[in-house]
Amino acid sequence: MTDPLLSIRGLTVRVGKRSDAPSILDEVSLDLMPGETLGLVGESGSGKSTLGMSVLRLTSPTLTAGTSGRIAWKGQDILTMPNRKLRHIRGEEISMILQDPMASLNPVQSIGTQLKEALRRGGKRNLSAAAEAALAEVNIPSPAERLRAFPHQMSGGMRQRIVSAIGLAQDPELLICDEPTTALDATIQYQFLELLKALRAAHHMAMLFITHDFGVVARICDRVAVMYAGRIVETGPVAEIFSRPAHPYTKALLASVPSTSHAPHRLPVIEGAPPAVGHRPQGCPFHPRCAAASAHCRHAPPRTELRPGHTLNCWHPQEHPHEIA
Amino acid sequence: MLKHLAGRLAEALVALLLMSLVIFLLSRVIGDPVALLLSDSATEADRQMLIAQLGLDQPGWRQYLTFLGNALQGDFGQSVTAGREDALHLVLSRLPASLSLAGIALLFTLVVGILLGVLAAVTRGTVADLAVRLLALLGQSAPSFWLGIMLIYLFAVKLGWLPTSGLGGAVYYVLPALTLGLFTLAAITRLVRASMLEALGSEYVKLARIKGVSEWAVVLRHALGNSLIPVVTFMGTFFATMITGAVVVETVFAWPGIGRLAYESIMARDFPVIQTVVLVITAFFILANLIVDLLYLAIDPRMRARS
After folding, report:
1. Structure confidence at residue A10 as a pLDDT band (50, 70, 90)
2. Measured between alpha carbons, how far is B3 from A225 in angstroms, rounded to an integer?
3. Domain A6-313, what architecture?
4. Residue A104 and residue B204: Cβ atoms within 8 Å?
5. B251-275: per-residue pLDDT in tens?
6. Interface ipTM
7. φ and ψ at A277, to 5 degrees?
8. CA distance linking residue A161 with residue A15, whole number of Å
9. Which domains does chain B have, with CATH numbers?
10. Which of A99, A108, A152, A176 is the best substitution to test chain B (most B C-beta atoms within 10 A)?
11. Would you list the domain boundaries of chain A?
């Protein structure tokens, strides 16, 4: 068996240094294999973006100070690495696409300047030619002209493709995508996902794909980790999680995905709201909203491996198969 | 682009014209020039003669047109003080002293203010940040006449390092420029700190860090360019602060500029000179705002697209 590219163990992120400070992430552990795409799914505030940011040590200083655990990249701990070394991992080995294409490009610099900055770090010689090729790779028409353009002259979909070109400029081995399709129109979303799949194949990259959309997970991910209130509650291969979700939270989330094959009906909802940071309950964080909860659930749930690769943290795994359209 | 500039120039001319009307009306409302010009021993006949000579027997609108016509030919009348000097000539002769002082103060303010603002933002929450913020707070709260007197007392009287007042070599500029610039310096520091913090927390700075760009390049290449936009926006206001500040600072430091000239001519009710000073200042003010517009086009590509 090959070693994982990225191996996170016991990652806890608190708001500040004190050990009693409220936590955003609680003892998160996961592995990512070379070339694999792992989906991180969860509601807003579940900590999935913080997890993505932590991998590049890009969280705010308050959160960085409150980070503990281990994020091993090819065996080296990113959290304790000197800045100089980390800078070479950023962009060159691990890159990232941010959520909001309208905000993630510098408004006062031309596309060419921003793209070439990344290409130069990637050791490219003929920057203009490389920049044109990079834009052509993400299907930007007439790339030579676009290099002289500024972000405000472009649509959201086009900007997100440019952000991807910048992300890929140094040929990284891992691309973290933080809800890259959320801000795009539905039709553009589909195109963009197809583009990401093509780029993933061309660059032989692994991906950490952060999203709240199971439809996106189904399209692009190999495995999925479901997050709730700063913890991973269930993880497994996409097909397995979709056909046989075992955590009550995963089941409820999947049940609330709209479907086109069933007659229109009222979608089931999960009662209540996720707990805010600092107000998370003892034991299983989902128990106050869980239909299957019992007195056990006030204590930390055990980790169960249902089948190879399919694990969950729950006192009451739901074993019956779940119908999904 | 050219069309945009032409539009701004037309606006500037309208503004100047309006200003001339305001000045004309004010000078007629505030006082009677005849009473000022006549000597104590003048008779009623002298008075009537002077009124006719000055055209004050004409209707108001005609007086204004005459004033405007003369002004367009560079004739703003003569000072009413003993020398009877040509008003425009007097104001223009004082202009270089004021412009050099304001220019030095503005340059010093911009350079130091931006440096301090960036320093405070980058070291946010540390002692350096606290010190800069405290300095900025003091700079914005200290009135300039008091500050000027304190600086003179400390550096000129007690320590004897710098001259107390007047215009001479470079050393004469230090205290007046410091006094004139401190308020603006504090304002720029706070502005740059705030906009720099905003830029440093932005998504595009995050993207620059993702690329592996060094912290220096992140600050200078990505954050600074964006955080200077609000500074440019406020440049017009800063210039206005410098001009109004000049009246006080030039008086405190006996600086031979138009600020002190304005003060002296107000004290002497020298209306032709006051009018000229105000019009010249207005013209400079409009010019400064035109320059700000041009700077905007240079610094922000979004503005280039709009104009």
Report:
1. very high
2. 58
3. 3-Layer(aba) Sandwich (3.40)
4. yes
5. 888 888 898 998 888 888 787 888 8
6. 0.87
7. -55, 130
8. 33
9. 2-72 (no CATH), 95-268 (1.10.3720.10)
10. A108
11. 6-313
